[in-house]
Design brief:
The chain is mainly α. Helix content is 74%, strand content 0%. The chain is globular.
Length: 200
């Protein structure tokens, strides 16, 4: 990476980090672009080189933070040598839930955005194939002992269920606190995966 590219990355990272700090402390609606650039120490024009508006930077942050969650969970899964699609998906979900339980500002920030839109439109920007969450999921499916149909629907359903149900269970203890809810959630994930298996 050249000096100019490195400088651009530093400025973009400073804007992202500052925006995240302000969004999670002041709130998105109470944060102005002028607040972000002032705290980041960059010119207002620099903001618009990278982002259209504060909702664009928020969407980039949701994608980035979500990517980090899935990436670290995937790394932990590989280190633990978990095999089989059902076990792998449950390990990843469990890892993410445990992280979000300790980081409520992050949970509130990403809200229920752990959905296919984030996974496909925003997360699949990885320059490095190893960091591409969707590709890693497809590899997990391909390496499983079973064949699957409607894989995108399966992923969407699992992520949507885990995202919204986990959010409500962690923050509001609905329908029950998350530790009590996990067995029900994971049983549902196993049933979803099983329902997408191709009958040989």
């Amino acid at each position: 990476m050249g000096k100019v590219e490195e400088n651009k990355k530093l400025k973009r990272d400073a804007l992202l980090n500052t925006a995240y700090e302000l969004f999670t402390t002041k709130g998105i609606h109470a944060t102005a672009i002028s607040d972000i650039v002032k705290k980041a120490g960059v010119a207002k024009g620099t903001f618009y080189l990278y982002f259209r508006d504060k909702y664009d930077i928020k969407n980039n942050l949701v994608a980035h933070k979500t990517h980090e969650l899935f990436y670290h969970a995937g790394f932990a899964m590989e280190k633990a040598q978990i095999h089989g699609l059902e076990n792998q998906m449950i390990f990843i979900i469990d890892h993410i839930i445990d992280h979000l339980m300790k980081d409520l500002p992050l949970l509130n920030f990403i809200s229920k955005n752990l959905v296919m839109g984030a996974l496909r439109a925003a997360l699949i920007t990885g320059k490095d194939a190893d960091n591409d969450i969707y590709e890693r999921f497809l590899n997990m499916v391909a390496e499983d002992e079973y064949a699957y149909q409607d894989v995108d629907v399966m992923l969407f359903t699992i992520v949507e269920l885990a995202g919204s149900a986990g959010y409500n269970s962690i923050l509001y203890k609905e329908p029950v606190p998350i530790d009590a809810y996990k067995p029900f959630l994971y049983r549902a994930v196993r049933l979803i995966i099983e329902s997408h298996r191709v009958i040989q």
